[in-house]
Amino acid sequence: MATQHSRSAARIMMAPAVILLLGWMLIPLTMTLVFSFKRYLPLRGGDLGWTGFDNYVRFVSSSAFWPSVQTTLIIVGGVLIITIFFGVLLSMLLDQPMWGQGIVRILVIAPFFVMPTVSALVWKNMFMDPVNGLFAHLWKAFGAQPIEWLSDLSLFSIILIVSWQWLPFATLILLTAIQSLDSEQLEAAEMDGAPPLSRFAFIVLPHLSRAITIVVLIQTIFLLAIFAEIFVTTSGAFGTRTLTYLIFQRVLESQNVGLGSAGGVYAIILANIVAIFLMRIVGKNLDT
Amino acid sequence: MARSVTTRRKTINTAVAWAIGFLIFFPILWTILTSFKTEAQAINDPPLFLFFDWTLENYAVVQERSDYMRFLWNSVIIAGGSTVLGLMIAIPAAWSMAFVPSKRTKDILMWMLSTKMLPAVGVLYPIYLLFIQLGLLDTRTGLTIVMMLINLPIIVWMLYTYFKEIPGEILEAARMDGASLKEEILYILTPMAIPGIASTMLLNFILAWNEAFWTLNLTAAKAAPLTAFIASYSSPEGLFYAKLSAASTMAIAPILILGWFSQKQLVRGLTFGAVK
């Protein structure tokens, strides 16, 4: 039984974390909200007064907005499909008995620990460079014309790089989930003559559905915010300008803070829609 | 009964898994190999895999020309500092939530999680402005604070899930024997909590080390950590593949090694305990 004494002590112990996070959330958020209703150009006159919803309207009606939403959705969707599909296959493979399982796990998980700027730069130069990249060498070896990956297939290339970074994460979580699957259930199904594909569809996949949902939600939140990969490879050119990147350009490159802040508010709303679903799952888990 | 597996099946599994593992790891392997080549060998066509003149020259050049140690030191200070600072704030909070839960504990945890979902770009300018006014732009102090704040929810959550696993009866027994709060924490809780704290520390060090939004936007020359240092190679200078590889290898090596120890914590930390 918690005593009155320990309860007030608990409150004091929690205070620093709560106050700091509250400040970290509220102060910048309030500032963003205030700026978003202002005409605010730090290099061209500074604060030029209130403009109502002008920035919100202008952000959405600018010619760059819808393409950036589309780009964001393609990147997030593409990476999700690739990482989940291969993640499920890979986690099932890694769950099988084999020699050197620990080493294979290490090899598979490694890309997740590579900092985003390094992976973007390595892929950009050493693999996708149309003259000296490894892919160019490979293409030439087969007598084909090397591909200009980051300009002609820019979106695909970025999806490839980001998928490489996030496949380990999906695999690891799905593997953790698959290992909790009762193997007797599978054996029973096997003995009853269920073919591998239906064993997968009716036992493995339903068991993984919760883990897959969690991977989708967490990755979506991180993927909506990818920045370094685009910053380093294309700087938003060749149709790779995501919503995050567009806001970054408005705020820091063209120094239109009001407009960028309105964009920021849109990004926050978008992230919150995803977050609500994730929190519901995590919250349910807290009760058990 | 354990499933009996034929040697043939096991051999096939092994071959396929190793092939895929190698393929996924290949970009990292290739970077490490290239870092030991001369520039001419690095772009040789056909590519050279193992049979080239191994050299350490690139590492010396990278260090000499770009003062690699300074960026490394910045990374260590920022990632290490933010982790230690975060733990100091999070341990009491997680402790009280795990052992003296109230009706609001769950709400507070969920709210902390929600701050982590806030997209950084949405608050980029306010933070930038505050940093200018407080003189924190391009300082290690400023970046350490930001890293601490963005990882604080994860630290609290991870610690909370670890602390939850410590049986409460032990604490109650200690309390009945007359242990004070201080003694309780010092002699009972701490020894049992150390593995969890260590795991949390490891994962957060990795996350802070690799963070590349705030480090790119809030630093310039002075406080730039390795993430920003590497990004500077994306200028035409990036044509020097061997040197780029040496710089990259040095930037990722420490974390790759730490990361291999933290696979399990990764799942717990990044799914907020939802997958165990």
Task: For the structure shown, list the relevant keywords.
heterodimer, A: 288 residues, mainly alpha, MetI-like fold, two-stranded antiparallel ribbon, 13 helices, B: 276 residues, 2 domains, globular, transmembrane (chain B), membrane (chain B)
Describe, in plain words, how this protein is organized in 3D.
The complex is a heterodimer of chains A (288) and B (276). In chain A, helix 3 (65-95) packs parallel to helix 8 and helix 12 crosses helix 13 (257-287). Chain A has a two-stranded antiparallel ribbon with strand order 1-2. In chain A, a hairpin with a 4-residue loop joins strand 1 (38-41) and strand 2. Chain A is mainly alpha-helical and 288 residues long. Chain A has helices at residues 4-36, 54-61, 65-95, 101-109, 116-127, 134-141, 149-152, 154-179, 183-191, 196-224, 228-233, 243-253, 257-287, and strands at 38-41, 46-50. Chain A has a single domain (39-287), classed as MetI-like (MetI-like fold), CATH 1.10.3720. Chain A is globular. With 276 residues, chain B is mainly alpha-helical. Chain B has two domains: 7-59, no CATH class; 64-270, MetI-like (MetI-like fold). Chain B contains 13 helices and no strands. Chain B has helices at residues 7-34, 39-42, 57-66, 68-99, 105-116, 124-133, 140-164, 168-176, 181-210, 214-218, 226-231, 241-261, 263-270. Chain B is globular, with a radius of gyration of 23 Å. Chain B starts with 6 loop residues before the first helix and ends in a 6-residue tail after the last helix. The mean pLDDT of chain B is 84. Chains A and B meet through helix 1, helix 3, helix 4, helix 5 and helix 6 of A and helix 1, helix 4, helix 5, helix 6 and helix 7 of B. Chain B: It is found in: Cell membrane. Chain B: Belongs to the binding-protein-dependent transport system permease family. Chain B: This is Carbohydrate ABC transporter permease. Chain B: Pfam families: BPD_transp_1. Chain B: Keywords: Cell membrane, Membrane, Transmembrane, Transmembrane helix, Transport.
